[in-house]
Amino acid sequence: MLSQAGLTDVESRAYLALLELGPSTTGPIVDRSGVSRSIIYQILERLTQKGLVSHIVKGRTMHFQAADPSRIKDYLEDEERKFSENRKNVEALLPKLYSMRAGAKQSEATIYLGFKGMATAHEHTYQALSKGEEYFYMGIPPDQPDYVHAYWKRDHKRREKAGIRCRLLFDSRTPVGVLRDRNKFEGCEARYMPSGIKTPSSIVGFKDVTQISFATDYAISVEIVNQRIADSFRAYFEEFWKRAKPIGKRQ
Question: Is residue 251 part of a domain?
């Protein structure tokens, strides 16, 4: 229980020994508590700072005495007050820390596995983008399971409501009906990748984020947060987009 009040094991044993002994020199405290003689003064000093031990000097010998047990309650109240003050100080500091982080060059990479992993990574578009902003998606594979198409149809409805825009570049082997279906959603324009360009990976980009997905037997998605990398992939996309022809909407 004393450890739950914030005392270490050796502090608790020294304090309990003093309660039983009354005023005492360090020798009996060491014998009763089992605390090493080499650290007993250090432990008693820590207890003194917590207001749980006092001492007097008789002759040249220091005698220690345990404070009234009710002082433990006072100590806890002091710690709660300090914690509350520290919490307020940290909360006041957080905006500054966030601004420092935002000003620094951030770079990190995360790997997501399977379709659910890809969906988790895609959620970041909703966390990062505001109404009117967009993401691009290029190299979208021509063959996708029905549940993947169903996911994207649901997601485009959600994207419409959020007011987020997107531009999509599909593999040239993709049925034209898929592109026309995507183009019916507001804020979405789908085109074919320029003729002859085929890639085993698809790439999503927004702000400082690049997500690269590999259509293996068990899909792997790599998310990279780095502004220079994001800018380079966007440059590729914009060049491909200029060369791609618009596709009409489904009637």
Answer: no
CA distance 246 to 53: 82
Kindly state the tokens that stand for 128.
Answer: 């990062």
Rounded to whole angstroms, the Cα distance separating 212 from 203 reads: 5
Per the structure, the count of domains in the chain is: 2
Per-residue pLDDT of the chain (251 residues; tens, 9 = 90+): 777 667 888 888 888 888 888 888 888 999 988 988 889 899 899 888 888 888 888 878 888 888 888 777 777 788 788 888 888 888 888 888 777 766 555 668 899 988 888 899 999 999 999 999 999 999 998 888 888 889 999 999 999 999 999 999 999 889 999 999 999 999 999 999 987 777 778 999 999 999 999 876 678 899 999 999 999 999 999 999 999 988 865 43
Do both 18 and 58 map to the same domain? Answer: yes
Q: Which of 15, 13, 53 is nearest to 34 (CA)?
A: 13
Q: Do 112 and 221 sit in the same domain of this protein?
A: yes
- Does residue 218 share a domain with residue 117? yes
Residue 54 in tokens: 């006092």
The answer to whether 56 and 63 have CB atoms below 8 angstroms apart is yes
pTM score of the predicted model: 0.57
